Amino acid sequence: MKNTIFTTTATVFMLLLLPGTLAAGVESLRGPLPLDAPAKIFPAKKQQKAEGGFERGWKQQPPQIPHEIDKDRISLRENTCLKCHSKENHEKEKAPEVGESHYVDRTGKKLTKISQRRWFCNQCHVPQVDAQPLVGTTFEPLPQK
Amino acid sequence: MTSLQMEKMAGIARLPLLIAGIVVGILLWGSFNWALEMTNTEKFCISCHEMEENVYQEYQETGHFSNRTGVRATCPDCHVPREWIHKVVRKIRATNELYHKLVGTIDTPEKFEANRLELAMHVWKTMKETDSRECRNCHDFDSMDLEKQEPRAADRHEEAMDEGKTCIDCHKGITHHLPEGWEEAARAAGLQD
Questions:
Q1: With contacts defined as CB-CB under 8 Å, which chain B residues touch A51?
Q2: Which of A69, B15, B38, B168 is the most buried (most CB within 10 A)?
Q3: ipTM of the complex
Q4: Cβ–Cβ below 8 Å for B152 and A49
Q5: Which domain holds residue B14?
Q6: Which pTM was predicted?
């Protein structure tokens, strides 16, 4: 009898504590907000632009985008980046041509059109804002020879 | 009655006719212009589901729909000339669009997409011919401050002024999505810069 009372009280206690311990360990990135409440608003940051382009961190880095892209669209049918960066247009637009690597398929074959692997440019190339990095890094590129 | 008297009588009889004529004329003219204006609103343009489902949705994502300063360019701003005579010509041409509405040429998004290149080419051709007249109702190279633009825009605009290029040579697909193969087609037709 005594045993049953003990186990029941202990179980009830633990059940009561359980949600508390769980909540203390894991907190949602939105903070302790109810699901239907709007998340905290961060101040909008202006995009950084760099005439001549941003310096690359290492040789094979996809260069960051130094101009606005909010009017550009990439979908199955259209890619407005190519209005300026394609083989045909880059000269008159004074824009750098997409790298040679963008015309090569995964077997290494050269293509006349941009490779499907490189169609969605912003998978690799992104614009920048002046924000504190969330996670620090000690990365250093190999010394250039 | 002398013939002189008869002429006088006829003259008096004609007077109300003349007045009636003027009144009817004003009414007709008024309703004609009223109809012109009624069909010149964004609301009218998108009362067709063909327009509402396709181009209107895309337009809402663009700077001509909503922007920092709150100036909006509506469908007729870009698609219907402002001067009266050009406007009437455009409206008469629109009867062809009514015909296609009736036979359902573009009544599904798939059909619309399949015909989009042809439709776009019509607009590009017209704008090229009019030196992008509708754009210039609002925009003007003379009032553009190139210093305030990104270099990639300023460089091209300087060139455009020097060489007499027109807006639509370079600015395709600013309000609507572009169909596949647009660039090759436009270049082949001499409509691409």
A1: 151
A2: B168
A3: 0.76
A4: no
A5: 1-38
A6: 0.86
